[in-house]
UniProtKB/TrEMBL annotation, chain A:
<keyword id="KW-0547">Nucleotide-binding</keyword>
<keyword id="KW-0067">ATP-binding</keyword>
<dbReference type="InterPro" id="IPR050093">
    <property type="entry name" value="ABC_SmlMolc_Importer"/>
</dbReference>
<dbReference type="InterPro" id="IPR013611">
    <property type="entry name" value="Transp-assoc_OB_typ2"/>
</dbReference>
<dbReference type="InterPro" id="IPR005893">
    <property type="entry name" value="PotA-like"/>
</dbReference>
<dbReference type="GO" id="GO:0005524">
    <property type="term" value="F:ATP binding"/>
</dbReference>
<keyword id="KW-1278">Translocase</keyword>
Automatic annotation (TrEMBL), chain B:
<keyword id="KW-0813">Transport</keyword>
<keyword id="KW-1133">Transmembrane helix</keyword>
<feature type="transmembrane region" description="Helical">
    <location>
        <begin position="239"/>
        <end position="258"/>
    </location>
</feature>
<dbReference type="Pfam" id="PF00528">
    <property type="entry name" value="BPD_transp_1"/>
</dbReference>
<feature type="domain" description="ABC transmembrane type-1">
    <location>
        <begin position="175"/>
        <end position="381"/>
    </location>
</feature>
<feature type="transmembrane region" description="Helical">
    <location>
        <begin position="179"/>
        <end position="199"/>
    </location>
</feature>
<keyword id="KW-0812">Transmembrane</keyword>
UniProtKB/TrEMBL annotation, chain C:
<feature type="transmembrane region" description="Helical">
    <location>
        <begin position="181"/>
        <end position="207"/>
    </location>
</feature>
<keyword id="KW-0472">Membrane</keyword>
<dbReference type="InterPro" id="IPR035906">
    <property type="entry name" value="MetI-like_sf"/>
</dbReference>
<protein>
    <submittedName>
        <fullName>ABC transporter permease</fullName>
    </submittedName>
</protein>
<keyword id="KW-0813">Transport</keyword>
<comment type="similarity">
    <text>Belongs to the binding-protein-dependent transport system permease family.</text>
</comment>
<feature type="transmembrane region" description="Helical">
    <location>
        <begin position="227"/>
        <end position="252"/>
    </location>
</feature>
Length: 355, 394, 260
């Protein structure tokens, strides 16, 4: 039996005529790291706000451990929240900030001190306990916020773009730190982000949001390799999209007649009826380039640009009726703009979605 | 609405409630009482309760009934407040000439117990409906005469609105004087305040600090202290006259106090910060490179000023001017202390009616006129400056 | 060059105009003369002695302090509560109330004086401390509301959400987070309320009896009748008090911003 820690059942949030979250059904498994990923305005932060109790669901029910919590105020939900801008209390020291949730729970002074020290040790900030937040760097503030949200041992930790304000290097370090804490403490973490690489790095599962609806919820690998919709395919990473229709089946593979001319062979799926309009997606790193045309899935293209990007080479291509992108190893041959070549890929690297 | 949202709103409402009640009772209610007081006129009604009942069905043309006459006799006999009776007679006489003599005669007649029940026996004039119409009108509990009198108007015998005879009242003169003084003060505030704000916005470092402090310090200083200070400066043996005398610029002291000059100087000083600050805050929002940009495009600095800076800062000037004018119109302390008899503004008249003669109806009527003027100016100010807070004290 | 000179001369003259009155009154507080005029024959503290020993002046100082303290407490409590409540948007209530709460700043004191005089006659509040404190509170409220609302607006609302998520109920959030953070604004509002009460004359003329004569009212009366240097001494007290209060506010703000 799967142990659902949190369940959202038919949750809807409207602001006036705007449906920010629309009839959402979502189960969050105990101990999982779930990312809510989407562009701004997709409703992901609103869901977090409803979970934390800062906003009320217009309709629907939220359950934690099987109990409905809609009418439980924030301060009795026992969820740790890490805010985008950390929301540290500026008039309190680091230690006072971390002690705050324990003080609110009436924990004894000696135990508060012990637990605060432990929490600050965990985020390696014990030396700065008497500083004020304003005297800390962004990364240090972030770690204080983390310690404060964890010190009272909540079952659930909600994080709202907690790394958004950090520079790239620090952000990547914190991603690993938080992942490590998650594994060590067995927490259920709901993590809101608009950064797809962050979601891919950290999550057990990702829920991709668009306009208040979940487009897809799955593991990072499935989300990346087998996007369910055009939105997911385009939002997660870069992709090449080719429009066409199913022309027929042949030996466990489906044939797609591209609108731009030419045929593709892809892995067959049962739901593909002949004549159905489809989108074939190929990730840039799966695109091979060669001077000679390949036997199958070969598209004649002209190189428009070739850009050196350090760890890889990005090749812009103009095919019949559409542009393509290929990502090649940086040691691969550089194609000069104007060269007429062929783009090709294996049938199993092409994923077909319904537009 | 969910229960928790409801709770939050209720909590907010409960937090606001004490102040709402307080302001309702001690701010809105007094203003309401004033409005009521200015249109309420029940003095005669209180004096003649029986007549009020008897006259109710009367059609204002028929000869007075016996009941009306008997009631009036009874009321006049019962009236023991001489001042109130006197007020009533004065009022009736202003509506219908001849009432004074008629009433004198009637009052001495009703003092004798054998008089009655018919007043026509006392004087033939009681048979004329005109005298009874005057009573019927005086019994109306609502009146516009105080409000009309506040702007030197009255209702003539035909009931039309007409001007008071010359010399009967000076309210209009005082209102005009109030506006004039306020306008002159506003003019001087713009004259000094606008260049001052420009200078402040253009300056940097210590200069700007000094200029800003010089504006803020008076604003923070007690109005009385500032007025007292001008007293010291402006009086006959004061510093200004002393300085001018020693320079040989004048041979005898200039009259600077207890006249219009003193009022304008002191009020300009007191209100100048209210002009400088709005202009300054608008000037701060104007990018500093606009003027150099204009001159680099070939505009003469004066033209650049006229076409770039002036239009952009005009909003601040108008805000400041409205603020100064609005505040000046209601001023009391400064004119009372450094002005002469001919420099008193409308506030002094209101204070006179209210504290000296206890004529609350007249004080209320004048107060309402002043209040309405102030509120109109305030609404314009808010519309213009797009905010509801005022940077200053009244 | 000429333009620079003209602006410099104008600036100096304007600063003189603004500051001269404040400067000239202070030394006269220490004159030994009977008159409020320069030159000062010799320095003496006789007018301060007069201020603190003559019953009219001494009582008026005491009255000012009593009424000022009462006004500060009443206006601050009512204003802070309302400013907190006004953060929640209540349909059809918040905006009009906000306007009404600020109106006492706009209505001429004389007008308010007439209305309150009639009301006080009905309620029996004329010539009472309570009546004067209430009247001063009415005109001090807008300043308290504005300064407290400003500091509340400048506050990150997520701090209160954070407090709630950490287990603080509404009361605890208010006590540990909201009020400490709004403290500079509350302090400013309280000082402004005290200053307004100290300086108020018009309402006192309408509402106070001889028993509630304040320092400002006494100065007003003295300026009208017998112009004695006691006024300069009183003005000195006023200015010293203002400077002291301003320093207090600055100190409170400094301490707070140091804490940030």
């Amino acid at each position: 039996m799967v142990d659902y820690h949190i369940r959202l059942d038919g949750v809807t949030k409207t602001f006036g005529a705007l449906r920010v979250v629309d009839n959402l059904r979502l189960d969050i498994v105990r101990g999982e790291f779930l990312s809510l990923l989407g562009p701004s305005g997709s409703g992901k932060t609103t869901i977090l706000m409803m979970l934390a109790g800062f906003q009320d669901a217009t309709e629907g029910t939220i359950y934690v451990d099987g109990h409905m919590i809609n009418d439980i105020p924030s301060h009795r939900r026992n969820m740790g929240v890490v805010f985008q801008s950390y929301a540290l209390f500026p008039h309190m020291t680091v230690a006072q900030n971390v002690a705050f949730p324990l003080k609110m729970r009436g924990v004894g002074r000696a135990e508060i001190d012990a637990r605060v020290n432990r929490a600050l040790d965990m985020v390696q900030l014990a030396a700065l306990s008497e500083r004020r937040p304003a005297q800390l760097s962004g990364g240090q503030q972030q770690r204080v916020a983390l310690a404060r949200a964890l010190v009272f041992e909540p079952g659930v930790v909600l994080m709202d773009e907690p790394l958004g304000a950090l520079d790239k290097q620090l952000r990547e370090q914190m991603q690993l730190d938080i992942r490590e804490l998650h594994g060590r403490l067995g927490l259920t973490i709901v993590f809101v982000t608009h950064d797809q690489s962050e979601a891919l790095t950290m999550s057990d599962r990702i829920a991709v949001f668009n306009k208040g609806l979940i487009e897809q919820i799955d593991t990072p690998r499935m989300i990346y390799d087998h996007p369910a919709t055009r939105f997911v395919a385009e939002f997660i990473g870069e992709t090449n999209l080719m429009e066409g229709e199913i022309a027929g089946r042949e030996g466990g593979e489906a044939l797609i007649r591209l609108d731009s001319g030419g045929m593709l062979r892809v892995r067959d799926r049962a739901e593909f009826d002949a004549g159905r309009r489809v989108l074939a997606t190929v990730r840039p790193e799966k695109v091979e380039l060669s001077e000679a045309p390949a036997a199958i899935n070969s598209i004649p293209v002209a190189v428009t640009d070739s850009i050196y990007q350090g760890d890889h080479l990005r090749v812009q291509l103009q095919g019949p009726g559409q542009r393509l992108v290929a990502r090649r190893d940086r040691r691969a041959a550089e194609w000069t703009p104007g060269a007429k070549i062929n783009a090709t890929f294996a049938p199993e690297d092409c994923w077909v979605i319904v537009p | 609405m969910t229960a928790r949202l409801w709770n939050r709103k209720t909590r907010a409402a409960l937090l606001i409630l004490p102040l709402a009640l307080f302001i309702g009772i001690f701010f809105v209610w007094p203003l309401g009482i004033m409005v009521k007081q200015s249109v309420l006129d029940d003095a005669v009604l209180h004096l003649l309760p029986r007549t009020t009942e008897a006259i109710a069905g009367w059609d204002r043309t028929a000869p007075p009934t016996e009941a009306m006459q008997a009631a009036l006799i009874a009321d006049l006999r019962a009236a023991d407040d001489e001042k109130a009776v006197g007020d009533m007679v004065r009022r009736l006489n202003s509506a219908q000439s001849g009432y004074r003599t008629l009433m004198t005669k009637t009052l001495s007649a009703v003092a004798k117990p054998e008089t009655g029940p018919l007043l026509t026996d006392v004087d033939k004039r009681w048979a004329q409906p005109a005298f009874w119409i005057a009573i019927a009108d005086a019994l109306e509990p609502m009146t516009d005469r105080y409000l009309l009198a506040a702007v030197d108007l009255e209702r003539n015998k035909a009931g039309e609105i007409a001007g008071l005879p010359d010399g009967a009242s000076a309210n209009r003169t005082i209102f005009i004087r109030t506006f004039w003084i306020a306008a002159v003060v506003t003019f001087f505030c713009v004259l000094i305040g606008y260049p001052y704000a420009l200078l402040t916005a253009a300056s940097t470092g210590i200069t700007r600090t000094i200029l800003l402090t010089a504006v803020l310090l008076p604003l923070w200083t007690s109005l009385l202290v500032r007025t007292a200070a001008w007293f010291i400066l402006l009086q006959e043996q004061g510093l200004i006259n002393g300085f001018l005398l020693s320079m040989g610029a004048i041979s005898s002291p200039l009259p600077l106090i207890f006249n219009r000059t003193g009022v304008v100087i002191a009020m300009t000083h007191v209100l100048l910060p209210l002009m400088v600050l709005p202009i300054y805050s608008v000037l701060l929002t104007i990018p500093t490179n606009l003027m150099p940009a204009a001159t680099s495009l070939g505009a003469h600095p004066l033209r650049a000023f006229l076409h770039v800076l002036l239009p952009l800062s005009l909003r601040g000037v108008i805000s400041g001017a409205l603020l100064v004018f609005m505040t000046a119109v209601g001023y009391y302390i400064t004119p009372a202390l450094v002005g002469g008899a001919g420099d008193q503004m409308i506030s002094s008249v209101i204070a006179f009616y209210s504290t000296q003669t206890a004529n609350w109806s007249m004080a209320s009527a004048l107060g309402i006129v002043l209040l309405v003027i102030t509120l109109i100016l305030y609404v314009v100010y808010v519309q213009l400056s797009g905010r509801t807070s005022v940077n200053g004290r009244m | 060059m000429a333009g620079k000179l003209i602006s410099a001369v104008f600036g100096v003259l304007a600063v003189c105009f603004l500051l001269l009155p404040l400067v000239v009154i202070l030394p006269l507080a220490f004159t030994s003369s009977q008159f409020l005029i320069y030159p000062i024959p010799s320095f003496s503290l006789r007018w301060f002695e007069e201020l603190f020993t003559t019953p009219v002046w001494r009582d008026s100082i005491v009255n000012s302090l009593i009424i000022g303290a009462g006004t500060t407490i009443l206006a601050t409590v009512l204003g802070v509560l309302a400013a907190l409540g006004l953060r929640e948007k209540l349909n059809f209530i918040s905006a009009p109330l906000n306007t009404v709460f600020l109106l006492p700043m706009v209505v001429p004191a004389v007008v308010l004086g007439v209305g309150m005089q009639i009301l006080y006659a009905k309620l029996g509040l004329s010539s009472s401390y309570a009546g004067i404190i209430i009247a001063h509170t009415v005109i001090a409220i807008p300043l308290v509301i504005v300064s407290v609302a400003n500091s509340l607006q400048g506050m990150d609302t997520r701090l209160e959400l954070a407090a709630a998520s950490l287990g603080a109920g509404p009361a605890a959030t208010l006590r540990h987070v909201t009020l400490p953070l709004a403290f500079p604004g509350i302090m400013t509002g309280a000082v402004l309320a005290f200053a307004v009460s100290l300086d108020e004359v018009v309402l006192n003329i309408f509402l106070a009896g001889p028993g509630q004569r304040t320092l400002a009212r006494q100065m007003f009366a003295t300026l009208r009748d017998s112009i004695s240097p006691a006024i300069a001494a009183a003005a000195f007290l006023f200015i010293a008090g203002t400077v002291l209060l301003t320093l207090l506010v600055l100190l409170a703000r400094r301490r707070f911003s140091g804490a940030r």
